[in-house]
Records
---
Amino acid sequence: MSWRRFLAVLKARNREFIRDRSALGWNIFFPVLIVAGFAFAFSGKPMDLYKVGVYAADPVQKLAEVQKTQAFFRTDYIQFIPISKLAPAITKVERHQLDMLFDLDQHHYWINRDSPKGYLLERVLHGADTVADITNSPAGNFQRQTVSGREIRYVDWLIPGILAMNMMFSALFGVGYVIVRYRKSGVLKRLQATPLTAFEFLSAQVVSRLWLILAITSGVYAGADLFIDFSMFGNYALLLLVFTLGAVSLISLGLLVAARIASEELAGGILNVLSWPMMFLSGVWFSLEGTNPLVQKLALLFPLTHVIDAARAIMIDGAGLAGISTQLVVLTLMSAVFLLLGAVLFRWK
Amino acid sequence: MAVLLQASNLTKRFGDVAAVNGVSFGLEAGTCFGLLGPNGAGKTTIIEMLEGITDADGGKIFYRGKPVGVDFRNDAGIMFQSTALQDYMTVREALEMFGSFYPRPAPIDELIDTCSLGEFLDRDSRKLSGGQRQRLLLAIALVNDPQVVFLDEPTTGLDPQARRNLWALVKRIRAQGKTILLTTHYMEEAYELCDEIAIMDHGKIITRGSPKTLLAEHFDEVVLQLPRADIPADPAELPLPVTLHEEEETVEILSRDINATIRILLDNDISLAGLQIRPRTLEDLFLALTGEELRA
């Protein structure tokens, strides 16, 4: 290993990336877009869970009146929407756009018998007035106990996944695709004719992309933290370790894909085949709890799953090194296997 | 002179096609050796086997009398037929990067001077003209101060002026004592630059020697060219060895005695206003040896 040659390739790759204004711009703009999207979607008060239409000749006035006399209309997390035309509102119930609809003048209500939300609202409606003070009411043989704690919102759960997913795309396409382009255009062939070794070349590609990914991920994290007050109960150094290992494993996967391919179209196809299942099955958007066990096992094959699991454990549960040791070992092993295979299979031409 | 690089019975197959079929030759130190032939003759495959870029199926390569190893790359300068550099890299940065790959790089200022790169040192390498780009690639080939320089069709695609500029550079490099292996399908280029040539076709060397010696061995006549329109009758009726080139609308006459040939033409009332006389060329030699036009 010659550090001189390694640093020369690293410098050239960094320079290429920084001078490519469109790629650089996108890499900066895209995270800003993500942060802005989250700030827009998750700032403000929590969203109501149910939507109930209230129709009357003067729906606003009538709603104010019934809220004084009937407990149901004071229930939290239900949005009561004044309605001035009945027929279109009934159609909305049919289409699940409204969960329930009241005609306060005629004393009717509508629910959609196929709507789980409508079913629950009806149960609440029938219980609300009889159990106005729930804290003192009996519930069969059960005695009421309470706990308190900070809510883990969807955004708290989502942020680690989004950071990791952004990292995945940058790692796979920013390295795999670039190497295939180098091979196709003859850059690799020219480098092969020098004393530069494949290991030196590949290491430089990994390091170049790694610092970029960590810088961008840190920027997105800081930006999101400014606008969204999301949870972080763990250690920042540990989170950095997880993201570093995760980035190395994903970059190595990109190298493995690019080891021999000379067609950008084929490389793009394979990278998509890898990244899309990872995006949906690694738990970025939703938990795999309760899904088919086979799918859960399959998800464990993806490095992204372990990055997200470890990041969530740190950020949401405040896990320490012991709590994420399994993920760290798996990510290390995956990085080693991908790098080794990528280096063995690598062809300059 | 000592043989610096020796190829012995090299073979290479691509599927059913024998791209190189038992080729042997040696490069004497400080000379320019040319591999000539049409596209597909096997020139690039041979040069890439010598460079270590392509593995040979058979045969051996010796450098300074020993089988070539990885270290040969430190002594070899390579200019590929088609190559690319990383994007957004200036001429100076490209030279610096390639220089840092070698234990004993040549001084960059010297390379800039040798290859006349001074005017566009800070220009993005993608924005160079064809000739400028080839000069940069030649400078990169020289960045390790090599003993052997491989030039694979260095002037293909260049305009005549750029081609002649590059010839001047190659001559300058040879004058510095470098050993050069050049492939080309331009016979004029080989005649101008090479001390020795090997003409290839279908993966084999069909003849080798110095250009002048080869021409002298195979030809003792010159060619008289006339416009077809200047010969009123059927050219085949002339009592001379005549070849009609219908596409170019010219007639070529081989002659060992120019005075006698001209007398015959005048006796047949043929105008000599458009007459041109040229010596036999390597192009003619290729045609004579293979029976085919050079498929350049």
Note: Chain B has a mean pLDDT of 88.
---
Amino acid sequence: MQYDVLREIGNIGAGNATTALSQMINAKIDMKVPNVELLEFKELSDIVGGAENLVVGILFTLEGQIDGMMMFMMDVDASRHLVNLLLGNTDENTSSEFTEMELSALNEIGNIIAGAYLSSLATLTNIVITSSVPYMAIDMAGAILSVPAIEFGKIGDKALLIETEFGDEIREVNGYFILIPTINSYGKILSSLGL
Amino acid sequence: MSEMIKVGMADLNVCISPNAITTLGLGSCVGIVLYDPIKKIAGMVHVMLPDSTKILNNENKAKFADTGIDELIRQMLTIGADRKSLIAKIAGGAQMFAFSNNSDMMRIGERNVEATKLKLQQLGIPIRAEDTGLNYGRTIEFYPETGELLIKSVGKERKIL
């Protein structure tokens, strides 16, 4: 049941995020129905291409009536593609190093996607949630995932991962979204939904 | 042929030379290697949290520094390690994101390292090498044949401890 609720929040959030991204890039972006998975910690990094896969993680802490954290993660190739679209770079630019300008573009993409998820959560629950500025890290997937996984670890032995696949005519990219309310906040979300 | 045994997040395993043991992409978690240099038996645990007594759901022993180390020793003794010979090498406990506030949630890597050291000290197991803290991920491999701990990070030289 709780799982279905989070999937639904994921669906609506993904829709909002797609619209926002399309407007920002000024191109059509499609997003598929997100895949929601509850995973053992051991399996977590296999899903995102292995623990050593180089990824960009953008993390926000949550405050207000709900506290916790959320993170948006993409592999470096996907991030490069989005940055190229956003800044009008040619596709020949495949560098895994990002300039200052590109890093702030990535932060902005993270902001848009996270904002879209949060506003769908707020709409469904009538709960006010505010998020921090984005914090970004580029490193091995396992290392990036350890931060939200530890938060999940305080309440259980599994982590909830929402995988979204989106793209333009040229290519599809995968993004992963993780939302971790604290135990108290989780109860608040469910009760506000009448569950 | 020797085998590379994998240890996942909140997981542990043991190994005897010529096999080796690894855990990939340690971030704020800590990788603890215990080693009996005489029998060439090693064990590795990838812990996520400092203290099992602070958490209600604490069945997975490998998730915590305190119970993870106890369980690792138990399994190593079962395959013939000598408790008195054990030494430790530890890595990880990074702060992956540069948070502006210094809340508890943000210091988790540091707290994992502190809890690991305290537990090892209580057990009288000396720490022979350490590569902890800072802000980047680490993959570690331990070779019981030589006692070497190899540390790999993105865009950095390999280290052998």
Note: Chain B touches chain A through 33 residues (CB under 8 Å).
